[in-house]
Structure formats: C-alpha cells, structure tokens
Design brief:
The chain has about 325 residues and is α/β, with parallel strands linked by helices. It has eleven helices and eight strands. Helices cover about 35% and strands about 10% of the residues. It has a five-stranded mixed sheet, sandwiched between helices. A three-stranded parallel sheet has the order 2-1-3, with no helix packed on it. About 15% of the residues have low confidence.
C-alpha cells in the first residue's frame, strides 16, 4: 500500500524545484501557504480559485444605476463588531512577515476587534475579477466577500450598477481624520460614500537591471515606454491585460493625453501595439500574475505597478527596478 509520506516528500521536492528555478517566489510561496499551517497542493495553486463578492446591490440606487442626489442609507450593523470579515485583495498588497507568512496588520486588527479575517489574494485583474462576480451581483445573490479592493474606475462602475453598500461613516472616523485630501471626495465616489482608498501607486515599467544590461549593454537603462518595443527584448517583454493601463501608456508614447484622445488616436495606439504583438515582441499580457515572472527573471521588463515592484525588490529580487516612463 502506498505510503502517504511519499506524496508529501514528492510535494516538498516539487516546492524546492519551483523555488530554485524561480517559478514561484519565496514571498509568493509564503503568502499561498497561509498562516504557518500544513502546505497542501491546493495551497500552492496559482492563481487561487476566484470566488464571488459578498456585496449586495444598494436599494437606494435608482434603475439608471446612478445615485445622483438621492441620499443613501448604510445597512444596519450590530452595536458591537463581531464575526468574520472576508476580504479579497491583490497579491503583495499588505505587509507580511517574511519568516512566518503572517500578516501583522491583520493579526493586530483581529486582536483589537475580536473579528476573524479571512484574507484572500484573489484579484489578478479588474475585468477578470468583475467578470466572475458580476453574475451573482446582478442577480442580487449573497456571495463570498465582504470587502474587495479594486481600481478607481471599477469602483465607479460598481457604484453605477448599484452593487455596493454605502459605508457607515460614523464607524470609521479615522479616514476623514487622517487621509490626504487627494483621497477624499474622489471623482469615482464623491463623498467616499461607498469606498475608501486602500493603497495608491502608479503604473510604469518594472525591469531587471541584470537582464536588461545583458540584452542591451549599450543602453542598460529603461527610461521610455518605447523601450518595451525595442527588438533586442523580443519575447522578454510583458504587457498588461488592463486596457486602461496599456492603451493609456501607448497613447502617451504617441504624445496624446488619454483624456483628449480621439478615435483616430486610439486606432494609432492599437496599431502600434498590434504590430509589436504580431512581431512576437511580447511574452504575454498579464494581470498581477506578471509578478513571479519578473521576480523569477523570466521577463526582462514589463508594464508594472509600483507597489508590486517595491515589494519584489525588498523580498524577492534586488535586481528589479521601477521606472516611470518619461512620456
């Protein structure tokens, strides 16, 4: 009869190979492994299986989906906090103990509130995540998550569709007291009725200075969006599946401000990207799953988010840099 310890040994060998070959970073492994418990095959699946979002449509939003001037009323809450908070976030978007895989901020929150947090790094791409949760949300069904972290434009869409609950501002005075003015009364959620900023960064280019210097020794610095299209990096470049990031940066490379772009401008940007893609310039179009490819030196450069690269450089690969393109 097979010894189950053989499976465990094989799993351990597979983990060791993946870490050694850069196919999964040590930091990502710790995050996937959870809070110091047994490592199982399901804990190592990347990306994690996405579930639905536990936010019911707001009854105060009209049929058009616009809240307009209509007052919104937060849902009734218990007098004392209790229970479990189910939270969906992006990978690498919270502090982590690199030794244990614990999240210090969450542990402190749990100890101070007696609320258990189920924390899931389930968001890889705004559109991808929305596509998975939208059927339940449109049907008004209860789903898995209480709290989700999405980009500003997606928050605006979900407000317009009536998918979010208004916040009880009396329970969270620390935001108004401490947040910078930039994050108060934002365009996508006037008055912060439905949302509060979690983290803020910028889209730019993440690159491995060692690989870039090997492939282009005459110019070992990345400074421009057009560096992503340099033929010397063919097959070593990542782009974003997020249209707003990729198309906006391409428009800027053409000297066009995205907010002022015409249909002809958009077609020029599309043509520029398609010519490069058809020439096999790009290894792929990614959401947050570019993280392990860049940290593991399977990409030389890629469109990237600043928060990811700051974590990556600290925990996974000191050769990774982040550049805001000159455009």
């Amino acid at each position: 009869m097979p010894d189950p310890r053989d499976d465990q040994s094989e799993l351990e060998r597979a983990i060791a190979r993946a870490l050694a070959q850069g196919r999964i970073s040590r930091r990502r492994f710790l995050r996937q492994a959870g809070r110091g418990g047994l490592i199982t095959a399901s804990a190592l699946s990347l990306p994690a299986i996405l579930a639905a979002c536990g936010i019911k449509p707001s009854s105060s939003v009209g049929a058009s989906g616009s809240s307009g001037s209509t007052a919104v009323t937060p849902m009734a809450l218990p007098s004392s906090p209790a229970g479990t908070l189910n939270w969906a976030n992006w990978p690498a978007y919270i502090d982590i103990d690199d030794t244990t895989g614990d999240y210090p901020t969450i542990k402190k929150f749990e100890s101070e509130t007696n609320i258990t947090v189920t924390y899931n790094e389930d968001i890889n791409d705004n559109e991808e995540f929305f596509g998975k949760i939208q059927p339940d949300l449109s049907a008004g069904n209860p789903t898995q998550y209480d709290l989700i972290v999405l980009t500003d434009w997606m928050i605006e869409r979900m407000i317009r569709l009536g998918y979010l609950e208004p916040l009880d501002k009396t329970r969270i005075p620390s935001f108004d007291a401490n947040a910078q003015d930039l994050y108060k009364d934002p365009w996508y959620d006037p008055g912060n009725v439905y949302s509060m900023a979690w983290q803020s960064g910028i889209t730019g280019i993440g690159w491995n200075k060692k690989l870039v210097a090997q492939l282009r020794p005459a110019k070992p610095e990345i400074t421009s969006f057009d560096d992503l299209l340099d033929p010397v990096f063919k097959g070593q470049v990542g782009m974003f599946s997020e249209m707003r990031d990729t198309m906006s940066l391409t428009l800027l490379s053409l000297g066009v401000k995205p907010a002022d772009a015409t249909n002809d401008d958009a077609k020029r940007a599309q043509t520029k990207l398609l010519e490069a893609a058809n020439g096999k310039q790009f290894q792929g179009f990614y959401g947050n799953d570019y993280y392990d490819l860049l940290s593991g030196e399977n990409l030389a450069l890629t469109i990237a988010w600043s928060g990811d690269v700051s974590q990556m450089k600290l925990y996974d690969n000191a050769d990774v840099e982040f550049t805001i393109p000159k455009e």
